[in-house]
Amino acid sequence: MSIDEKTAAHVAKLARIRVEEARLPELAQEFNTILGFIEQLSEVDVDGVEPMVSVTPQRLKRREDVVTAGGDAKRVLSNAPDAREGFFAVPKVVE
């Protein structure tokens, strides 16, 4: 897969990152380099390898799964820049 300048501009727009037109070729090349590293990772044989959460062996902290009344929705949403119908409202970023 190869990223062209048009696609790089589209990704920047979706990420809401302003990129000058002159920098688009460099950004497209950076994306292609990243995709190349990802393709290299897909070549690694990971059959039989246990998933890890850290490079050092450790157990995940566990807690009791206790049902509570939940938080105070009005108090939580009071800090939201935009809240509607009891939910956080966010701008649409996927076209």
TrEMBL record:
Pfam families, A to Z: GatC
Catalytic activity, reaction form: L-glutamyl-tRNA(Gln) + L-glutamine + ATP + H2O = L-glutaminyl-tRNA(Gln) + L-glutamate + ADP + phosphate + H(+); L-aspartyl-tRNA(Asn) + L-glutamine + ATP + H2O = L-asparaginyl-tRNA(Asn) + L-glutamate + ADP + phosphate + 2 H(+)
Single Gene Ontology BP annotation: translation
GO MF term (any one): asparaginyl-tRNA synthase (glutamine-hydrolyzing) activity
Residues passing through the membrane, by range: none
Enzyme Commission number(s): 6.3.5.-
Key words, A-Z: ATP-binding, Ligase, Nucleotide-binding, Protein biosynthesis, Transferase
Enzyme class of the recorded protein, top EC level: ligase
Family: Belongs to the GatC family.
PANTHER family, per database record: GLUTAMYL-TRNA(GLN) AMIDOTRANSFERASE SUBUNIT C, MITOCHONDRIAL
Described purpose of this protein according to its UniProt entry: Allows the formation of correctly charged Asn-tRNA(Asn) or Gln-tRNA(Gln) through the transamidation of misacylated Asp-tRNA(Asn) or Glu-tRNA(Gln) in organisms which lack either or both of asparaginyl-tRNA or glutaminyl-tRNA synthetases. The reaction takes place in the presence of glutamine and ATP through an activated phospho-Asp-tRNA(Asn) or phospho-Glu-tRNA(Gln).
Quaternary data: Heterotrimer of A, B and C subunits.
Protein name: Aspartyl/glutamyl-tRNA(Asn/Gln) amidotransferase subunit C
Organism annotation: Roseivivax halotolerans
